[in-house]
Write a structure and sequence with these properties.
Layout: H1 2-28, E1 46-51, H2 57-63, E2 70-72, E3 78-82, H3 85-92, E4 97-102
Antiparallel strand pairs: 1-3, 1-4, 2-3
Length: 125
């Protein structure tokens, strides 16, 4: 029994010493500052821009100097950003940009009612 304990003790001491040293090492590691992002021009309107499937939405935004508020890659392929009138015109002139639409709020009040389309889920009666 004494032989096992004498072998385990140095290993235990070494493990405890290594664990105790971890916080000291972590405290001295250099902390990188986050990369500052340029703030979007809040005085400009927000637009949703859709681009071709073979284009990177962030790269298209960068070409006109826009900072995306969000980049869409699943259902919609594009980005949302505050854009100046000049940026909107430049994007609309690009062949790889499919649409540039002013962002707006949607609500249940915008849904078709019992009128011509019969409402949601009616099968187009």
């Amino acid at each position: 029994m004494r032989k096992r304990l004498s072998r385990a003790l140095p290993v235990t001491v070494a493990v405890l010493a290594a664990v105790a040293a971890l916080p000291a090492c972590a405290a001295t590691a250099a902390v990188r500052e986050p990369v500052p992002r340029t703030a979007p021009a809040a005085d400009h309107a927000t637009y949703i821009v859709t681009v071709g499937e073979d284009r990177d939405p962030a790269e298209v935004a960068e070409r006109v100097g826009a900072t995306p508020l969000h980049v869409y890659r699943t259902v919609l392929h594009g980005f949302a950003a505050h854009l100046s009138p000049e940026q909107v015109a430049a994007l609309r002139a690009m062949p790889d940009v499919e649409s540039v639409e002013a962002d707006s709020t949607a609500s249940g009040d915008n849904a078709p009612g019992d009128g011509e389309f019969g409402g949601w889920g009616s099968g187009g009666r």
